[in-house]
Amino acid sequence: MHPGTLPRRAFLKGAGGALLAAAQGRAAAPQPPNFVLILCDDLGYGDLHCYGSQIPTPNIDQMAREGVRFEQFYSTSNVCSPSRASLLTGRYAPRVGVPDVIASDAPIGLAKDETTIAEMLRPVGYRSMCVGKWHLGRHPQYLPTNRGFDEYYGIPYSNDMAPSVLLRDQSVIESPVQLNTLTQRYTQQAVNFIQRAQGSPFFLFLSHTFPHIPLAASAAFNGKSGMGLYADVVEELDWSVGRVLQSLKDNGVDNNTMVILTSDNGPWYQGSAGRLRGRKGSSYEGGVREPFIARWPGQIPPGALRARGPRVSRVMASTLDILPTLARLSNATLPAKPLDGLDIWPVLAGQPMTAQRDVFLYFDSWNLQCARMGPWKLHVARYDDFAWSPDPAGGRHNLPLMHPELYNLENDPDESYDVAAQNPQIVADIQQRIQQLLPTFPAQVMNSWQATMAMKVAPTPEGALPAVQP
To answer: pLDDT per position in the chain (470 positions), as tens?
Structure first.
């Protein structure tokens, strides 16, 4: 026998042992984490018990105790479609072709050359499902199943839009939609997906229709709160969160799943923005500051272990930051286009945030209205009427503020005290940063900005600009 030759039986035994060892090594390798992103529609900053509401939300409160709750988390828009576009791409809505709410019959949607979270995660083995409201384009090429999601079940736009349809993937399965059982059915679809997704990492985007109006609750929750239908709806959303969390435990994936809960914009008619000024449709804090809670056992330090109670972060973050954070945790390749968000995993993990954020911009359609730098928020423009009020004669106008307003949100979160006169250098610094950033946006943004600033002339008693309402 040649000295370098093994008997066949010995070779097979050795090869089998090597293959077994390799297989065991692969089995021992940690699976990438699962992600559950729960997005509520028009849920206000003050609508959850752990944010000061009287509405009982025990499951969400428990989630906050077991994870981290943010006090300064923002949507990039004060209305539905743009905020969702930013969340799923990590880029400002005007960059991705969704500056405004998309009508149910509009032939447009999230730009096809933009990368969603689901599209980013697919190449690294993730299975994804979108359950609930989409509102980023109704036509087939824009629906979730053509934007990286393997499955879809939900209403493709707001529940006050016609026609009222419920889709499975791209097919209508119900019309009109029975709204009173919708939260229950969304929740069951989410639970079913968690059960089906065993064996591969998964991304579940549970995008609730409520508490957007018209409101509806199931028989089990209708009247349950004793505080009206809005509170009933919020209690049912809390029940839904509890069912999803329990499903993760029942399927043995709780310790390898990060769950995030937030909202797309501020409350509309009935919800609460807490002590914040403004509501949906406003660039004041009440229109854009959202609840945000993240939980991942063993990875996100739980607030319940802190003697002083739930862990609360005062770091400023936004929906732009979700995509880059999930990219880091999944080892997915970032989209080719530059992102506006930051990886906030260090904050979630209880570590100092080292990455520096440039000014954070607040848009309403193509119109820049505010910019934030550190604790400072500068208002530079505002509409000449309240959001959701009848348009004034001659239409609604975005007008420059003759004297930009500056608020220190650390000391004055309800934006009551304009301190621009005391801080002229901060005002100038933010204005300079705005001028540097705006040319990186589509031409419509620059055109809108130039048109708005062109109206910034000193008013006279005879020809004053229309009054800007607070």
So the answer is: 443 343 434 433 444 444 443 444 444 457 899 999 999 999 999 999 999 999 999 999 999 999 999 999 999 999 999 999 999 999 999 999 999 999 999 999 999 999 999 999 999 999 999 999 999 999 999 999 999 999 999 999 999 999 999 999 999 999 999 999 999 999 999 999 999 998 899 999 999 999 999 999 999 999 999 999 999 999 999 999 999 999 999 999 999 999 999 999 999 989 999 999 999 999 999 999 999 999 999 999 986 544 455 689 999 999 999 999 999 999 999 999 999 999 999 999 998 887 888 899 999 999 999 999 999 999 999 987 766 666 666 667 888 999 999 999 999 999 999 999 999 999 999 999 999 999 999 999 999 999 888 887 644 444 444 444 33
Task: Point out the catalytic residue in the list 40, 50, 135, 370.
Answer: 135
Read off the pTM: 0.90
Q: Is residue 21 part of a domain?
A: no
Question: How many independent structural domains does the chain possess?
Answer: 2
For the question of residue 208 being annotated catalytic, the response is no
Range of 413's domain? 360-454
Tell me which of 319, 348, 377 is where a domain ends: 348
Q: Cβ(92)–Cβ(361) under 8 Å? A: yes
CB 39 within 8 A of CB 209: no
Sign of torsion, CA 352 354 355 360? positive
Residue of 80, 208, 370, 397 marked catalytic: 80
- Spatial neighbors of 193 by CB under 8 A, at least 6 apart, are 129, 131, 151, 202, 204
25 domain residue, yes or no: no
364 and 344 within one domain: no
Annotated catalytic residue 370: no
Same domain, residue pair 364 and 266? no
In CATH, what number is assigned to the domain containing residue 201?
Answer: 3.40.720.10
Residue with token string 């419920």: 166
Q: Is residue 236 in a domain? A: yes
Angle between helices 229-250 and 58-65 (to 10 degrees): 50
